[in-house]
Amino acid sequence: MTDNTCCVILAAGEGTRMKANKPKVMLEVQLKPMIGWVIDAVKAAGVETMCVVTGHLADKVEAYIPMEIEAARQNERLGTGHAVMCASEFLERNRGKQVLICCGDAPFIDSNTIKQAYEQHIAKGDAVTVISAVIDNPTGYGRMIRNSSGSLLSIVEQKEATEEQKAVREVNSGAYWFDVSKLLSVLAESKLKASGLTGEYYLTDAVELLISSGYGAGAFTAASEDIVIGANTPLQLHELNKLARDKILARHIENGVNMPCTDGIIIGPDVTIGANTTVLPGTMLYGETKIGNDCVIGPNSSAVNCNIGDRVVLNASQARQCVIDDGADIGPFSQIRPNSTIGNDVHIGDFVEVKNSVIGNGTKISHLTYVGDSDVGAGVNFGCGCVTVNYDGVGKARCVIEDDAFIGCNTNLVAPVRVGKGAYTAAGSTIVEDVPENSLGIARQRQIIKPDWALNRFREKK
User: Fold this and answer.
1) Residues 407, 419: contact at Cβ < 8 Å?
2) Cα torsion at 296, 280, 385, 406 (round to 10°)?
3) Which of 56, 238, 252, 367 is catalytic?
4) Which residues pair with 440 in a beta bridge?
5) How far is residue 377's CA from residue 399's CA, in Å, rounded to a whole number?
6) pLDDT tens across 386-398, in order?
7) pLDDT at 1
């Protein structure tokens, strides 16, 4: 399918009713821009060659789409037909192929529908195949008018439909498969005319031109009506989010993920979770997060673009762009920041922050500690209130703490410094020099006792 196909995604709309400071296609459904949903569905269907037609705040859309996807600008928004004309150079380079044209703000188009519509399109040899859906309330949608054999006769907009046509429940989704060469033959402005009412060029008119030219036209009815659902207002976007959330949670539950109560749980569409993992209320999982089997995530935890192994506990804590290996136990109230790797069976207790560090297997960082820019070995123990002092106001340096070291409470390790294998630091020390293997590092003033100092102090005041 890849060699014979390409795709144009229409993403130029402003969406003024959304009252947003970003392009409509960049509005998020379950923490992922709508156009991201569409691109992923197209890729999953096996279509690799793509062009996105941008317009309103085009730079924001073009910064989001992958570099291998082309962009074409629609500087004036003059309808869907005009948007496809703006991609004419892309289409010319792909003559002889079949092109999927779809909307970047219809996030529920799915790869199976795209593939099945393509298979019908090729099998019948049609110039165009419109992807449709049957919905309970078709008000506002273009109606699919077929002949007795099932071929497409026309797409009739709501305002132009007769009462009989308004009763038709099969509607246009806004997604099409076209033969590129035949589409280009009708896209020329001399053939595709602007509407006398709006001055816009409509892609549905290109369908009509192909039909009137004697080319075959078909329609593929999707299994779910959800593919036509979009959003034109903030409230409709809210409804999209609720629908997407329910679909995602249901998929994970069906796959064996335990959610005893789904209150406050948000899971992005690209998250994978293993069987027998429990996700507790208030948890947010998004980006390309992967979670293994038999974990407990939450309550009130978040993970963004993380790779989390099996049997991990993430309790009321946050993790971003990090790796957490099997059996790690984290939280509550801790943060694992980007570029960190937490080894097998590591224990990280309350109010701990780990940043840009590697924590070896079996290490324990129990509470009130900051580990930044450090390489920590296996079996290390951190006492309460320890800090790796990694920033001198100009640059950052790393600490190295080797296997089985013991870092006493309230130790400051001033980077760059190394604590050797099996070495100890005394509580309250500020370590500025390397501590050799199996040694004790003490860096604090010797204690002085002044007998009766407090009593004398009060006598002097009297």
Assistant:
1) yes
2) 0
3) 367
4) 424
5) 11
6) 999 999 999 999 9
7) 62
Q: Compute the distance between CA of residue 30 and CA of residue 281 in angstroms, rounded to an integer.
A: 16
Measured at the alpha carbon of residue 356, what is the angle toward residues 354 and 358, in degrees to the nearest 5?
80
Q: How far apart are CA 397 and CA 419, in angstroms?
A: 15
Give the CATH number of domain 254-441; options: 3.30.70.1170, 2.160.10.10, 1.10.560.10, 2.40.50.140: 2.160.10.10
Region at 331 (left for phi over 0; alpha for psi -120 to 50; beta for the rest): left
* Cis previous bond, 33, omega within 30: no
Residue identified by tokens 């092109």 is: 99
Return d(Cα 131, Cα 114) in angstroms, integer. 8
Pick the range with the lowest mean pLDDT from 118-132, 218-232, 305-319, 408-422.
218-232
Helical ranges in 135-263 per DSSP H: 163-166, 180-187, 203-212, 234-254
CATH architecture for residues 2-228: Alpha-Beta Complex (3.90)
| pLDDT grade for 194, boundaries at 50, 70 and 90 | confident
Dump pLDDT digits (tens) for 7-28.
999 999 888 888 888 999 999 9
CA 445 – CA 289 distance, rounded (Å): 48
Instruction: Give the tens place of pLDDT for each residue, 424-444.
Output: 999 999 999 999 999 999 998
Q: How long a stretch of residues is the chain? A: 462
Backbone angles phi, psi at 219, to 5 degrees: -140, 140
**Would residue 367 show up in a list of annotated catalytic residues for this protein?**
yes
Q: Which tokens in the block code for residue 82?
A: 């005009």
| Domain definitions of the chain by residue range | 2-228, 254-441
* The pLDDT value given to residue 2: 67
Spatial distance between the Cα atoms of 392 and 102, rounded to a whole number of angstroms: 53
Task: Give pLDDT tens digits for 148-175.
Answer: 888 888 898 888 888 899 999 999 999 9
